[in-house]
Write a structure and sequence with these properties.
- This protein has helices spanning 10-27, 37-58, 63-68, 71-87.
- It is an all-alpha fold and 91 residues long.
- The protein has a domain at 37-87.
- Helix 2 packs antiparallel against helix 4 (71-87).
- Belongs to the CrgA family.
- This is Cell division protein CrgA.
- It is found in: Cell membrane.
- The chain crosses the membrane at residues 36-58, 70-90.
Length: 91
């Protein structure tokens, strides 16, 4: 009678898997650290909101804001838009 094929041992399977994992680890590059993004976009967004609040509450009393007029709205909204743009960089 012919001999049946033998099954591969568990050790051989582990070795092959380790080799395959090692090859993929070499090819995949680790993402760069972007730990600065969350504090930055939160700060920029809060500054934009704070700018708008100060403008609406005491805009006529603050010398720079009274000179800018309605441009203060664009500055505040620009800060919030910049925060949104920074938030897209977060991984």
């Amino acid at each position: 009678m012919p001999e049946s094929r033998t099954r591969k041992s568990a050790d051989e399977k582990k070795v092959r898997k380790q080799r395959a994992d090692a090859e993929t680890k070499k090819k995949v590059k680790a993402p760069t650290s972007r730990r600065w993004v969350p504090p930055t976009f939160i700060t920029v967004g809060l500054l934009g909101v704070a700018w708008l609040i100060v403008y609406y509450v005491a805009g006529q009393d603050v010398p720079l804001m009274s000179d800018l007029g309605n441009w203060n709205i664009l500055i505040g909204m620009g800060g919030m838009a910049a925060a949104f743009g920074l938030a897209t960089l977060w991984r």
